[in-house]
Amino acid sequence: xxxxxxxxxxxxxxxxxxxxxxxxxxxxxxxxxxxxxxxxxxxxxxxxxxxxxxxxxxxxxxxxxxxxxxxxxxxxxxxxxxxxxxxxxxxxxxxxxxxxxxxxxxxxxxxxxxxxxxxxxxxxxxxxxxxxxxxxxxxxxxxxxxxxxxxxxxxxxxxxxxxxxxxxxxxxxx
Length: 174
Known about the structure:
Layout: E1 5-10, E2 13-18, H1 19-25, E3 29-38, E4 41-47, E5 58-59, E6 62-64, H2 72-84, E7 92-104, E8 107-119, E9 135-142, H3 143-152, H4 159-167, H5 169-173
Parallel strand pairs: 3-8
Antiparallel strand pairs: 1-2, 3-4, 3-6, 4-5, 4-9, 7-8
């Protein structure tokens, strides 16, 4: 199936729908978010400038929509590889989080997100190959620093990362 189709609910029925249309209509849809953590810091990605929403904003390590019938854990591993060139042996399922946010240009993220966390023992040895169509840069940031930066300059961060850190931090990190 075309990767531009994602699992979304339309009139209460889950079906594969075109991604941009889902965002324009604000339909609830499935998503996956990954946080790679090392020494009380998290790997953030800065979204590429050509992304159709929230370009140039900082987000968690990886976030995406699964393909139709794709298992969330498989999606998480696939997108880490596609976006960052990373293969992580173990991702731990943390929780399912629902949120809704305006992401600009008349688009709405209305997601049911499966959240996964991976632990990286030595972040300096993590080899990455960035897909510049998706990610412009990455950085490791301590959680307390991230929370402070979000409070000071929220416009630098995607709406979902702000929501995760403000409302769901304990669900994700503990």
